[in-house]
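Q: Got a minute? One more chain.
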Amino acid sequence: MKPMKIRPVPGVLRRAFPIAAPLLMTVLTAQAQTTAPTAAGAQPIQRVEITGSNIRRSQAETASPVQTVNRADIEKSGKTTVAELLQTLAVDNQGSVPTTFGNGFASGASGISLRGLGAASTLVLLNGRRIAPYGLADDGQKVFADLNIIPAEAVERVEILKDGASAIYGSDAIAGVVNVILRKDYVGTTVRLSQGLSNESDGGDTRLAVTHGVGDLETDRYNFLFSAEYGKKREVWNRDRAGRGAVGRADLRDFGFSAQEALGGTGAIVARNSAGSSVVGNVRNPLTNDYYSRGNPAGVGFTRTFPGAACSNFTNHPQGDPGGGCLTDATQMYNQIQPRQETLNLFGRATFQLNNDWQAYVELNGYHSDSESFSTPSGISGSVGYPGGPVNNADVSLGAAHPDNPYFGSRARLRYIASDVGPRTSAIETNFVRAVAGLKGTVAGWDVDSALLFSQSKTNRDQNGYLQRDVAFALLDPSAANVAAARAGSAAYNGLPAGSFWRIGENAGLNSQALYDALSPTISNDATTSIAVADVKASREFGQLPGGALGVAVGAEFRHDETELNPTSGTDRGNIIGLGYSAYEGQRNSAALYTEVIAPVLPTVELSAALRYDHFNDVGNSYTPKAGFKWTPVRSFALRGTFARGFRAPSAAENGRGGLAAFSTSDDPVRCALGIPAACASSSVAVITSPNPDLSPEKSKSFSLGAVWDPLPRTSISLDAWQIERKNEINQETTSAAIAAGNLVRDPGSSQFAGDPGAIVAVLTNYINSNSTKVNGIDLDARTTFQMGDAGSLTADIKWTHMFKFERTDLEGNTVDYAGTHGNCDATNCMGTPDNRINLGLTWDRGPLRLSGVVNHRGKFDNTLFKDDPDGCAFHFANGDDSPNGCKISSFTTLDLTAKYRFTNKAELFATIQNVLDKEPPLDPLTYGAAGYNPLDYSGALGRYFQVGMRYTF
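A: Always. Here it is, folded:
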C-alpha cells in the first residue's frame, strides 16, 4: 500500500496539541510503521494510537473529549501519588474513594468517580489494558480499581476519556475511562528522592524512586525498563489538629450543637431512656428508665456509689451540661485524618524488536501495601446485622451481681465506651501483581496487537479492639443464657475462672490479659480478585475518501474474572459489636467482539462509529454502539460530538453469593413526629442487604457536543456539553425508603413514653434494579502561553466542570436532583455532589527555573439531601436553626506552589508548598467520611504542607 498523503495539521492546532487537554489525544506509541518503501529522503508515515480508539491514525484528535495529565502536570501539582492528583481534578465527583477514609469498607485503597457516577462505573486501564480490582468493595458493593498500584515515577501520562467508551474498552466504562500510560522504552538511570512534612511537623511522606532502562530498539533491538518506588506516609491524628476549626471533632457544642444532634461529645445523657456510651458508664434506673452516670453520687435509686468513677478522674474535657453524663471526645482522641501507609511499587517492561515488522513485549507490575488506621474504642450497645438478620445489642446490661453496678441487686442497662480495651484498629496488607505478554506488528497492511494478561489482588485485614458479643454479654451479665452462649462460641472464655466479670471504668485495672484476649481477640478476613484476559486487535486503512483513508479496526477479547471476599471472623453470626458483615464470591466468563470505523468523508468532516458485542455467562448478551463526528470548517475551529450506549454487568458483590450488613445514617420520621428531638437528626443505623441473582445489567446512553477554538497562537479553548443517562441502576434500597415502608427493626426498650415505638436499630434492604440517573453539565478547558522574551514564558490554564443536573428517579417515578447538594448520602462518605469544580494553573518558565501555582476550587453546595427537599435543611443547630448558617457547605479553595530548578542536564531540585494560605475546611456536620469537615477538603484538614526533593539522571 502506498504511503497516504497527510494533510498538514494547521500551525495553530499544532501549537495547541501539547497544552489543550480536551483536544489532546496524545500518542501511545511514536514508532513509525512503514507499510511500503518510501521515496528517497521521504519521511515514513507516523500513525498514533489514541485513547478512545483502536485505530492508529496520523492526527492526534478525534470526536471524543480527552483530558491528558502529563508528567509536567503531575510535577507541578506537588502530589506524590497519581491517586491524590486524580482526586483533585474537576471531573472527579461524588463516589470517589479517598485513601484517607481509613474506616471505610475499602480502606487502604483509592478510587476515582468520573461524573459522580461511582468508582464502579469508571474503567481504569494500565497501558490500555485492565487491572484486577481491589479486593474490598466500596460500601461492600462497588468493585473498583485501586489507583495506589500506579508507580508515579514510571507514569508517562494519564489520559481521561470523558464521554464513555463501552464500545471500545468494555461494558463497565459507563462514566468514562482513565488510561494510565507508563514509560515504554526509557534509556538511562534516574533517582528521585523527596520528603514531605506538614506545618505541624507530622504526616511525613517519604518517597524514593529508581528508574533504569537499557537498550535502544533501533540499534540494539531490545529495551529493558525497570522502575521501583518506595513510599511511606505517616499518620496524622485528629487530636493534633485541635483548635483547627471543626476538624476532627465530635464535640461541636461551641459551634451551636448539642448531644441532640449527636455532636455534643461522647457520653452525654440525651433524654429520658437515651444516653451515649460513657467512659465511666451510664446506667439505666430499672424502675424509671432514666440514665445516670456511675460517677454521680446522687444517682436516683443507687444501691452503691462509686467515687472513683467521678468524671474528673478520667478527663479534663469541658463538661458544660451533659445531662449528668461524663463527656469526652473519642473521635478527636482516637481517630485519624490520615492513616499510616507504606507502599512498594515495581514495574518492569522488556521489549524485543524481532524484525522490522514485529515486536514482542512483556510487562510486570507488583505492588505491596501495609496500612493501619485507628478509630474510637468500641461501644457495647452497637446493633449489627448478618445474613440471618439483625442483632439488637441495645439491651446489654450490668448483671444484678456485677460489682460495678450502681443498682446492685437489679439488672440495669449499660452504655459504656470500652476505652480500657483500647482503640479499634485495622491493619491491611495488599499484594497486587499484573503480567502481560504480547506481540505487535504489521501484516498485510494490518497493525496487530495481541496479548495475554493475568492480574491478581490479594488483601488481608486484621482488626483489633472489637468486642465479641457473646463474651461481652456474659462478662457483664453472667446469666445462665449468656454464659451458655459464650461457652459455646469462645474457647478463650472457657479458660477464664468461673464467675469472671469485666470490670469497667475505674476498676478496669483489675481485668486480666486473659479476659481481654477472650473479650477482644484479633479478627481477620481476606479477599482475592483476579482476571485473565486474552485479546487481539487489528487496524488498517482502506482506500481513499475525499478527506483521507478509511480507518478500520476489529478486535476480540476473552476474560475470566474471579472474586472472593471472606467475612470477618465472627460477623457471620452477628457476634462483633458495631461491625457489619460483608462477604461475596463469584466468577464470570465473558467474551467480546468489536469493530470501529473512522471515515473522513470530506476534507472538513470526519465520522466515526464503533460497535461492541459482549457475552456474559451469567447475565446474557449486550450490544453497545458509539458514533461521533468532527467538523473543521476553518483551520482554527472545530465542532465535535459523540453518542454512545453503555452496559455494566452486576459484580459478584451484587449478584454473587454472600451479603452485606453495614451502617448508614438516617433520621426517624415516626419518632421525630412524636416530638423526640434526637430522632430528627441523622444517626447511625445498621443496614442489612442481600445479593440478588436476578439483577439485570445497568444500561446507559451518553452524549457529548463541543467546540475547540484556537483564536490566537499558543491559545486554545474548548467547551464540551455532556450528558449520561443510566437505567436499571443496581443499588441498595435507600434507608429512607425502607424506613418509610416499615422494613426495619426497633428497640422497644428505648421507648420514652407510651406510644413511642423505640429507636431504629436495623433496616432491611435488598440489591435491586431501582433507579435511573441523568447527569449533565459542561467542561471548559482553556490555556494560553505568553512569550516574554528574556523574561521567559508564562502559561495559564483553567479546567472547569459545572454540573447542571444529577437527577435520580426511583421505581415510583419520584425524581430528586442531587447537583449542588449534600446528597446522595447512600454513596461513599456522604461527601455531597458539588456542581462546580475548578483547577486553575499558572506556570512561569525561565531557563532552568520553573515556578507553578495551582488553585483547586470546590464550589459551595446546599446542606440538603437533594434540591428542594421538603424537609428543608439536613442538619440543624441545637436551637433549631439551619446548620451551617444559610444551610450551605461553604466553598473551599486552596493554592499550591511548586518550584523546580535544573542545575545541570542531570540534576534538579524541586519543592512544593500545598495549601499555602493554610485554609481551614468549612464545617460539615453531615458527612460520615470525616469528622467535622468534608473529605473533599482533606488538604484543609491537614493544613499547610511542605515537600522538598531532588532528581538525578545518570
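A: The chain has a mean pLDDT of 88.
Q: Perfect, thanks.
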